[in-house]
Automatic annotation (TrEMBL):
It comes from Scleropages formosus (Asian bonytongue). It comes from the Eukaryota. Transmembrane segments: none annotated. The gene is C5orf63. This is Glutaredoxin-like protein. Keywords: Electron transport, Transport.
Length: 158
């Protein structure tokens, strides 16, 4: 039995093709109840390795960092900044926060004279203009950390 699942994270959706773990549990339960575990042990080991590989590949996809732009309308500097970010847009998710909206009053008080202001994953990154050196450095550091973690996870899966 396969159960289709969706995993939500960071405001976007990662599609896990199917819940292979659930299928594995049903398979194991059936064989335990029938006393067939000893007959199919090598098959179960292969199956478990396959499940781990599939889960790692489809359910733990890379999460892009969130670049938050604090802006208002009109903001020519913000429009210019967004154009400068175009070559990097595949490396982050851009989230815009309009500081003029009532629910963003705190951000208005903090940044009313400084927009555009950028945060990367909730931490201040830059203001007034895009600094590609700073952006590149922080994104590179985050990507290196992510690739190191994924390499470590791959080692444990295999």
């Amino acid at each position: 039995m396969l159960v289709k699942t969706k995993v939500w994270s960071s405001g976007r959706i990662n599609h896990c093709a199917y819940s292979y773990c659930f299928m594995c549990l049903l398979f194991l339960h059936r064989h335990i109840m029938q006393g067939l575990m000893h007959k199919h042990l090598w098959q179960l080991r292969c199956f478990a390795r396959l499940l781990l590989a599939v889960q790692w590949r489809y359910c733990s996809q890379k999460q892009l960092p969130i670049l938050t732009l604090f802006t208002k309308n009109p903001c020519p500097l913000c429009d210019e900044a967004k154009q400068e970010l175009e070559p990097y847009k595949h490396r982050f998710l851009l989230q815009e926060v309009d500081i003029l909206l009532p629910e963003n009053k705190v951000w208005y008080e903090r940044y009313k004279y400084d927009i555009p202001v950028f945060h990367l994953n909730g931490q201040f990154l830059m203001m007034h203009r895009v600094n590609t050196t700073v952006l590149e450095k922080r994104l590179g550091r985050m990507e290196h950390k992510e690739s190191t973690l994924r390499a470590h996870d791959t080692h444990h899966v295999e």
